[in-house]
Q: What sequence folds into this?
């Protein structure tokens, strides 16, 4: 059964990014985006409510996850320049198989990030 999940790790502090705000958006053909869901990551850096999209809500197409990085680090007491080097991370990706498992992890610090299609 298809589903979408995410996991965020704070590489600057060596821990999950507990408390980070994440938005899931559906990207339209014209490039506009509609927010489908907004979550706050749990102590493990994941969504408490299960997958972001499950078998009943998975759709093929273009999607975006927006990770609110600067507010997360500021809440941890990190002094960031204004404007911050990384404020939010909009990550665009495609779902080609609505029955597939799509896991989108983010490894992040105040000055860098990386991602990949996880398992």
A:
């Amino acid at each position: 059964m298809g589903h979408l999940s995410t996991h965020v790790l704070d590489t600057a502090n060596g821990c999950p990014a507990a408390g980070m705000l994440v938005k899931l958006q559906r990207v339209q053909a014209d490039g506009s985006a509609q927010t489908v869901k907004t979550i706050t990551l749990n102590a493990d850096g994941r969504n408490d409510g299960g997958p972001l999209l499950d078998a009943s809500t998975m759709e093929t197409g273009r999607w975006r996850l927006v990770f609110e990085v600067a507010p997360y680090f500021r809440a941890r007491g990190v002094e960031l320049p204004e404007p911050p080097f990384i404020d939010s991370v909009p990550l665009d990706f495609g779902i080609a198989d609505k029955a597939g498992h799509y896991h989108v992890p983010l490894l992040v610090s105040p000055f860098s990030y990386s991602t990949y299609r996880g398992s």
Summary: Helices lie at 69-75. The chain has one domain: 3-114.
